[in-house]
């Protein structure tokens, strides 16, 4: 095969794999992006804080079960093939996401609502547990050894792009209707749209051929008969799995979720930044930072995966506290001067069923730096009172927040850009899907996925906006020490490769 055809084949593989993986991440993340609204729809409204934490816990469940999906679908991928396994995970993910958009709220079906959401989140988590390992392995097995960091980095962009697309769809939906309509039913639209995206991706992926390395193994009769036993029952391979988890994936997971999901949660729930503005801040930061996944993946081909990933963890751990302190200061009203003459109260009535009305009043405070704070009180037709605080920051502060989150996403690109190539190269082809998927999804699904819930609980417990950073900083530093000690770099004719010293 000539070089041009080989490149064309690789780019076709990357496009098809990335399109499907992006859509699966989109499906997974719209739940997190809409967590505040979902907490109101699917959980009792007697304790809003507890309902929000319960929603984050339900979100985290999808991450926690990802390792089980990695085992189930990893085994299937190592025995049957990479292509058909990630076709199956795509359909499960898409169907579950669409179904979440159909579930009636707690007010309609009671406790059945959160139970159904939990079941569908479990299905999403299982599917995503099988998706990433398949896509990363599939691309890596089509890539030249010395260019794996570069080519697999395109797969690495899909998680962030999936979040970016989810935010874009949510913003587009929200800005085309009133806030009341969006909160009432419009939030379901992003869930419904996923089915169209999944069908498009399935059509693209079904035309792919199986991985050449897997085809060769199968032709030679060397595929694994029991990938789980070979991956975790073999002492030497188990050491590699544990090193991949505690020396790389664990730290990468918390850095990933801190820089994107916790940043969004911090903006909306700690700083109370207005919904549309907070999503725009995250989306713009993601847009400008995403190309760095490819840069750091390519750099890892030149200088080694370890140097890039460990540097990212170190800088992240040292920088989180000053970054989040600077973010928090932008909405610290004790440091701002109010323009008393601009204070006003706005009220409105919204018709409800039975000829009744809900009342909404907002006390609006304006500050000299153009910060606007709304204290919103909503009284339902049944007499239920809901109080919210909503902060719209000035243009200069908005740009400042974009920069602070952009810096955090750069840390994400450093640890996440090279990790697919690192994991693929660590394990043999016959058990690669199973072996790499489990540590990746424990690191991301458990250590990373629990981050929003744990950090929110820490903030609530200690009544300190920055207390939630204890968890990601601690995990990143532990992983950094283990990785520095036990991961060794070996230069080969094709570039750098990481090996275990265990």
From TrEMBL:
It comes from the Bacteria. Its main location: membrane. GO terms for cellular component: plasma membrane. It is found in: Cell membrane. Pfam families: Sugar_tr. Keywords: Cell membrane, Membrane, Sugar transport, Transmembrane, Transmembrane helix, Transport. Residues 13-491 form the Major facilitator superfamily (MFS) profile domain. The chain crosses the membrane at residues 12-38, 50-73, 85-103, 109-129, 150-173, 185-204, 240-263, 275-296, 399-426, 438-460, 466-487. It is a multi-pass membrane protein. One of its GO terms (molecular function) is transmembrane transporter activity. The keyword Transmembrane helix applies. CDD domains: MFS_ShiA_like. This is Sugar transporter. It comes from Chitinophaga niabensis.
